[in-house]
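Task card 7
Instruction: Convert sequence to structure tokens.
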Amino acid sequence: MKVLLSFTWASLKKNRARTAVTILGIILSMTLFTAVLVGAASGRTWLADNEIAKCGAWEGNYYNLDSRLLERAMSQDFIKDASVWTDVGWALLPNENPSKPYLFIQSIDEKAEELVSIHLKSGRLPQNSGEILLPAHLETSGGLRFAEGDTLKLEAGRRLAEGRVMTEKAGFFPSDGIAETIVDTAEKTYTVVGFYERFDYSIEGYACPGYTALTTGETEGIGLSTLFFTMEHPSRFYTEVEKDDLLSRNLEPHSNLLLYSGQVRDSGVLRVLYGMVAILLVLIVFGSVALIYNSFSISIAERLKSYGVLRSVGATKRQVRMTVLMESLILCGIGIPLGMGLGLAGIGGVLAFLRKDFSAVFGASYSYVPIRIVFSLPSLLMAVAICLVTTLISALIPAQKAIHASAMDAIRQTGEIRGNKAKGGSISGKIFGFGGTLAGRNYARSRRKYVITILSLALSLVLFISSASFSDYLRTYLNAYAADYIGADLYVYNTDEEADPRDLLEGIRAAKHVEEGAVSRSCYADLYVPAENVTGEYRDFTETWRGGDEVVGGMMRFYGTAQFLDDDTFKAWCGQLGLDPAAFMNAEDPQGIVVNHAIHRVYDGEKRSQMRYSLDILEDGAKTLTWYTAEQMEGYQFKSVEVAEDGVHLWYLPESALETVVDEKGEYIQEDDEFLEDHPEKLITLELKAGAMAGEHPWMDAAGSDSLAIIYPLSMMEHVIPENDVQRANHYTQYAVRAAEHTAAAEEVESFLDESGSAGQVYDQAQQKETYRMFLKILTVFSTCFIVLMALISAVNVFNTISTNIRLRRREFAILKSVGMGEKDFTRMMRCESLLYVTRSLVLGLALAFLFTYAIFKVIGQNLVGAFYVPWHAIVIAVILVIAIVFFTASRAVGQLKGKDLAEELKLENT
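Output:
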């Protein structure tokens, strides 16, 4: 063993350049393995830590538990830790938010703070049953202001509606004729001890009709409780909780925390993420094997005679294999620690550089804990294992040649050439002369050596193009979804539909930071167009995804909208389209602009992924859209329009038969269709004239939608839709704002709405746009680092292969010079050989790169629909780099041979 070890050390020291290149390959490979795996672990840990900071460490909760179910839940053996929240009761608390008229009081236990995140804005947690902690949004949303030390006297009890007990999962729906009362009340007196930020929707749902207030020490209330719990084995979450069907009906999983922990059954997000990591690892392994394999292949070729001598003096195959294994382990012992350190430093630096961007991407909800590098032992061990196995495989494959060759063949090296039967060089000879002929013959008689070089070049091409494709497709994937967030910076919804929108619009426009404002009133419309006026691609889409059900009697149905845009914005839009606004302001003959484009997202059950289609809808010849709508009927509620072969049916429901019930989750249970009545005499047929077509929506709705839309000036609404039309009575209003300082503008608009007494919610979409910009920045930094490292691996691989190949042929070149080959012919021969390398490697490398690129498209693009494309810019760069590296390396290696002593070169061994 000592002899073999000495032989290995001597071999490594003898060729320091090759040893350094191999170590460099291992370092680069380990750097990438470490960066990818530790980076993934750091990202997942960051998401999980923020989710815990935001919502709590609970992994699930059982809600609406009576005493029997609570006891049953507490006895589940899979529960590790638990916190019981007792429902004290509901207290009527009139405020400015009509959908949340109650204060919902819950009593927490001593475990609450450990499992559920309660973010105090001021004050402290309650310490007894006479103290209460109020939510801060009671003031911001409800308009009620309290201070610490205030006393609250409340009548708390159970919510009852139509004889049914209502829970926090059931919303408040007075407009539907559902009368609620508070029964079994008890007087409660509390001292306010603080305020906390509103719980996440996973704890307090959006439909909850009460503001959740917290006390403690109450053991009795309205008989219901919530149990927050963690698991002994979180990986078994869904398996364990589904064992009890009764409890699982009241289960609320902590979905995000389970997702970040990998405990989710079927997630398109996880499939994409795992697919991305798998692609990265495959690319790195591919590049590592190419580089390290070639280094060891060259090393073994150099020492083939030495191995033959070892075999001749009695070394066994096992001992020869052991020398290669020793060499691999020695090189790994040097390269792996250095690569790990470089990878940790690199990913740590990148994460530190992008720390603010990560917080911006995920918003305020993910700014509790800054992202940092996590020294995940499993990730580091996996990186070491992958790098070690990759190196050993790369070394042992070429070692088989030395192991299985006979001692005399290895010493003589008779297997390195084919002999005198080799032919070739006729074409290259015509181009490059004698040097070209010789290059062709060299290739024919020693094809194996050339194949190694060509494979190295081809693999380098594949690595570079695949890395660039990965980045390009991922950027395309993100840009496709970022397209949904173009348009306005702010939107205002749920305003008073009875008020004149133009008055509210003027107030919004008057805000200091608002640069531009618009308003639209939209009505849902069942629009019909002759099928022959619909584009073929759209008909194919409906046939594929809707079974052709949209075509009735030669007419295709669209669930569209008739939209009425304020006149100033409409006129400006016409100017952008090159249209005369006056053509659309004629009350006697109103015409609209059809937005002839739609974006559809559909779920493919077989692929288990969302598909995205961007389609033109109508042919240019479509001039009229038929809108079937209905009149309002007193004592009836309109339900739907049905166009059938036998005519148009209008379905109404008598109010006397309206028995809408809300279940415990706040979902409607509708009456049977047997009560519906058909009143075709109430049909209103509107012929909407298309005065022009546009390829995209106006700026306020630039992201588009999946429906067909026709847009008019707001002043034309009363001339297009009759006053008694059911859709006109049920339109919705949307305000849009452009503002560079969107945060300040949002605050100003919210203040204006409060001061004017207008109900409305402001949605800051500009934040979403910034999120995608930051995400693209993060992607660009990571992909650039990855591509640079992969390019380094490829360049080192090519340089090592070609330069060593030429160095191993020094004696052959000396023989050629000794028989009279001049420098000019020698240079032509080397140029011809370089051209052979380039042309053959391009053919093989580009073919493999296309296959890898398509595989990447299928993984990353599984949520997109679009034509497969190849990133030609990456291919052009890769081809130029390969040509440059080959000719530079060959020229440099040949230059090093000049001036050598011919006699000394002839004394060298064949390898």
